[in-house]
Design goal:
D-Maltodextrin-Binding Protein, domain 2, alpha/beta
Length: 267
């Protein structure tokens, strides 16, 4: 009987240990990234940065963990201690605020690009986007219009500003469907959940989306400039590698990739 109880105790202990290990794995997702360069990037950089990261890894042998999302959400996460090394925002105001509160490496703030927005729909759509431009949002067949959530996505704020500029926002606001970020916004249109939407030019120029869609580029003076900024975080343990990645972005290979995705670059 004593032997049986001993085995049960061992089994119970083993089970509890295994469960503890599972809980640790669930609650500490960042530990798997130890040693990698971790980058938080606005989702308008989706295709451009996947290509950029791939080239950087091939050239340097470094490993990069790229996480894409909304600039505003990343800003909040970083304020609360999220362990990223580099932060690429679609609105330079966010990294400037981090700089003001002492959360960044002094002198690391860099305006890496200016973004553009487009009205985009599927190529099979009957909507004459190329001819009517943003006025196509008023087409009677349009039931849902996708934009990024302007509360935390700079591209969403630019979309609202552009609609206001053309005096359309009040007329279509009840048809708006909000994506968590600009990539999700594009997915809404690609999936047919929305008829049309306003997305980043960088996404519209990605090979897959370019083949499946058509777009009209919204004039730059129709909304505040989408000045995009990057910063190295003071909490980073990979500051030298973060600087190396920024230098690669600024170099000829990085500039070629960013230009191909429609970004205007600093001189």
């Amino acid at each position: 009987m004593k032997l049986v109880m001993s085995r049960r105790s061992i089994l119970n202990l083993s089970g509890r240990w295994a469960m503890a290990m599972v809980l640790v794995a669930l609650w500490t997702p960042w530990t798997a990234w130890a040693g990698d360069l971790t980058i938080a990037a606005a989702s308008d950089l989706n295709f451009a940065f996947k290509e950029l990261v791939g080239e950087y890894e091939k050239k340097t042998g470094e490993r990069v963990k790229l996480t894409l999302g909304s600039s505003g959400n990343f800003f909040s996460q970083i304020q609360n201690g999220a362990p990223f090394d580099l932060y690429f925002s679609a609105d330079i105001a966010y990294p400037k605020k981090l700089e003001d509160t002492g959360l960044t490496v002094p002198g690391s703030l860099y305006k890496y690009a200016v973004g553009r927005i487009v009205v985009w729909t599927l190529s099979g759509s009957t909507l004459p986007v190329e001819n009517r431009g943003i006025e196509v949002l008023l087409d009677p067949s349009v039931k849902k219009i996708a934009i990024a959530n302007p509360k935390h996505a700079p591209y969403g704020r630019a979309a609202v500003s552009a609609m206001d500029h053309f005096k359309l926002h009040e007329r279509v606001k009840d048809k708006l469907v909000l994506g968590e970020n600009i990539s999700q916004t594009a997915q809404f249109i690609e999936s047919g959940a929305s008829d049309v939407g306003i997305i980043a030019l960088s996404l519209a120029l990605a090979p897959a989306m370019k083949a499946n869609g058509k777009y009209w580029e919204i004039p730059a003076d129709a909304h505040p400039p989408l000045e995009q900024g990057a910063v190295i975080l003071k909490s980073s343990s990979n500051q030298d590698r973060a600087k190396s990645f920024l230098e690669f972005l600024k170099g000829p290979e990085g500039r070629t990739i960013m230009t191909r995705y429609g970004f205007t670059l600093p001189s």
